[in-house]
Amino acid sequence: MGKKVVAVDGPAASGKSAVCRMAAERLGWAHFSSGLFYRLVAWLVLREMEKEGESWEKVVSALKEGEAERVEITVDLNKILEMMEEVQLHKEGVELLPKWRGEVIGELELHRVEVSKLTPVFAKIPWLRQEITELIRRKVPDRCFIDGRDVGTNIFPDACLKLFLTASAEERARRRAKQIGEDYKKILEEIKRRDELDQKRAVDPLKPAEDAQVIDTTNMGIDEVVQEVVELVEKKCIR
Ligand code: DC
Questions:
Q1: What CA–CA distance (Å, rounded) separates 23 from 227?
Q2: Is the shortest distance between the CB of 176 and ligand 1 below 6 Å?
Q3: Residue 79 CB coordination number (10 Å)
Q4: CA distance 148 to 155
Q5: What is the pLDDT of residues 176-217, one digit of tens each?
Q6: Nearest Cα to 163, choosing from 20, 29, 35?
Q7: What is the pLDDT of residues 10-33, one digit of tens each?
């Protein structure tokens, strides 16, 4: 029998990670945020470019000027993929974090602003997505919540449960603004921009799997969402 996984997809800032972590804690399962592998690709690229004398800021400002292709050309992505093969998943509490050459590359590092800006450049390359998908399939353990954009539609089409967490853009912006103390309007604009990028992407666009259960959390508290998720997992994945 294959690995038992719960696929949790949904737009940016829909609370996927927090819900997965809390549900995993309740059930004694693990949680892996699949975006971390896409972020790790960007992180490794930035490191390689740094070795070639390019600063992270310079790479990202080139992006702002619409020269993203330049980034793809100067780094050999096959070499990056070979590096990705070495990645192991390290468990901290319920969280699975990438460990590369003996070093845990943590959430803070992988959420650095330069990494966040560069990641979508790689997340839209079809052959790279295929490779990352295979890596994720191989590396995640049994009994794992996996959140992302295409987990139920592509990475684990036979997940024991598929969820699609969503909330209005305004509510997601309100939650994120409260969490990080930034300007609501700025965040709302950024969220709308990311929604559009994720939904209109030619490869693996963000959409609920046909057999996914959609949970609109706009008017729900997080404990309520977690309770619903735990009950669904108990019903569908644990007997
Ligand atoms: O969830 P996140 O913000 O950490 O995702 C980082 C990037 O990776 C974002 O551009 C969406 C992309 N991603 C993806 O294309 N497919 C996934 N399964 C997970 C993330």
A1: 8
A2: no
A3: 12
A4: 10
A5: 899 888 899 999 998 998 888 888 888 888 889 999 999 999
A6: 20
A7: 998 899 999 999 999 999 999 999
- pTM score over 0.85: yes
Taking CA atoms only, the protein residue closest to ligand 1 atom 4 is 35
Nearest CA to ligand 1 atom 7: 35
* Residues 6+ positions from 198 with CB-CB distance below 8 Å: 11, 12, 149, 205, 206
59-78 core/surface letters (b: 16 or more CB in 10 A; e: else): bbebbeeeebeebeeebebe
Q: How far is the CA of 12 from the centre of ligand 1 (A)?
A: 9
* Domains parsed from the chain with CATH numbers: 1-29+143-234 (3.40.50.300), 35-140 (no CATH)
Give the length of the chain. Answer: 239
39 lines ligand 1 (CB under 6 A): yes
